[in-house]
Amino acid sequence: MILENIRLENYRNYTEVFAEFDPGVNLLVGQNAQGKTNLLEAVAFLGSGRAFRTQKSAELVKFGADFAQLEGNVFSQERQQNLKWVLFSASRPRQLYRNGAKKKTAADISGVLQTVLFCPEDLMVLKTGASARRRLADNAICQLRPNYEAALLEYNRILEQKNRILKDRHENPALLEILPEYNARLCQVGALLISYRARFFEGLGREAAEFHKSFSGGKEDFSLSYKTVSTISDPFAPVILLEQKLQEHLESHYRAELESSACLTGPHKDDFDVTLSGISLKAFGSQGQVRTAAVSLKLAQRTLMEKESGEIPVLLLDDVLSELDPSRQDFVLNQISRGQVFITSCEPGRFTKLGKTIEIEQGAIL
Ligand code: ATP
Ligand code: MG
User: Fold this and answer.
1) How far, in Å, is the centroid of ligand 1 from the Cα of 322?
2) Sequential DSSP letters for 269-292
3) Which residue has the least CA distance to atom 10 on ligand 1?
4) Cβ-contact 344, 40 below 8 angstroms
5) What CA–CA distance (Å, rounded) separates 93 from 100?
6) pLDDT tens digits for 326-344?
7) Is 12 near ligand 1, meaning CB less than 6 Å away?
8) What are phi and psi of 112, to 5 degrees?
9) What are φ and ψ of residue 210, in 5° steps?
10) What angle do CA 176, 153, 114 make, to 5 degrees?
11) Residues of the chain with pLDDT under 70
12) DSSP string covering 114-166
């Protein structure tokens, strides 16, 4: 899939801009705070309805403006397609159009423009907190499986309500009566999430192991394992069984949840771990090993999406190349010889031989 152009109006620090892109490498260069990441974010948002730095679409609207528009032409699924979003600064529902026809949710444009973002924080994702790893996985699965996002939103909504019940029941003990209802629903939707994640991690681990093998010259054996609630020994089990196991885990933590007034069990605590030749990266990995494995994971995500949809997702590298040493840079650059890539960099000239260079200054394209 190729993003041919984009038009932004009142998006972040862009007042009005139109940019045409190369089907290969697009290098976005400019000083700090000029709008490079904002443009990458806009590309990712156009295809997914999700911005990687915020949950609130009002933040994407230029300060002082009432609404923002993003529009782009994409060549994918063997035809030219147009995507358009209108976002409002007030709490008004956002609007989405595909080829001029109004659509309800991002699931309705699933597969038109898929992106894989790689930013410097991702380089340490295997060392830092579990929430960053969950975000990485959720982001990928949302794009791969249109129904996953609805389940995830539903799960988070119930979770928030349950948290509120646990906190407010001190003042209002009657709230405890409705808790079982929320727990049941949480297990139902949670089981679905686990089922999707199990399949995703299996594929991701398989692809990443391939990349890591060639990356490390066959020296290190990469293995990824998905960690969910302890009562689930087989996350590939039928969803109905997963639901029972989640319920069991919840029941055994009932007291602890009341005492701590927090939801302690469920897939919102999920994680994954990577081992290299049997040794956990999180606990023992060197900086270089952790970074190399992170590169393998990102490239794997792209391959996995390509295998699923038959189209190469657009790769967004935000400042990541300059964070890598020359041998790792070369590895990435060799792997991205196919497909469309956007690379941001503050250092003009460094990667300019790669493709089209787009200079960005104060929310304008020079
Ligand atoms: P760096 O090289 O430091 O990463 P960058 O070019 O990637 O810089 P961006 O993250 O794209 O910079 O941000 C550019 C500017 O956009 C920031 O100064 C930020 O304050 C501004 N900005 C962010 N959101 C909005 C908004 N809603 N309205 C107006 N300006 C905004
Ligand atoms: Mg930036």
Assistant:
1) 19
2) G-EEEEEETTEEHHHH--HHHHHH
3) 37
4) yes
5) 18
6) 888 888 888 888 899 999 9
7) yes
8) -75, -50
9) -65, -50
10) 165
11) 352
12) -EEEE-HHHHTTTTS-HHHHHHHHHHHHHHH-HHHHHHHHHHHHHHHHHHHHH
Q: What is the DSSP string of 335-360?
A: HTSSS-EEEEESSTTSSTTSSEEEEE
33 lines ligand 1 (CB under 6 A): yes
Side-chain half-sphere of 32: how many Cα atoms within 13 Å? 0
Single pTM value for the model: 0.91
| Domains of the chain by start residue, with CATH | 1-114+312-366 (3.40.50.300), 124-310 (1.20.1050.90)
Please give the Cα distance from 16 to 33 (Å, whole number): 17
List the structure tokens of 25: 């490498």
The residue to mutate among 17, 27, 31, 37, having the most atoms of ligand 1 within 8 angstroms of its beta carbon, is 37
Task: Name the token pair of 115.
Answer: 């992106």
Amino acid at the residue 297:
L
pLDDT of residue 261: 93
Range list of β-strands (E), the chain = 2-11, 14-20, 25-29, 67-76, 79-88, 95-98, 101-103, 115-118, 222-227, 271-276, 279-280, 314-318, 341-345, 356-361, 364-365
Radius of gyration of the chain (CA): 22
Kind of pairing between the strands at 356-361 and 364-365: antiparallel
User: Which residue has 């069991």 as its token pair?
Assistant: 248
Q: What angle do CA 103, 109, 115 make, to 5 degrees?
A: 145
Write the CA distances from 105 to 1, 57, 79, integer angstroms. 21, 14, 21
Give nearest CA residue, ligand 1 atom 1: 32
Amino acid identity, position 281: L
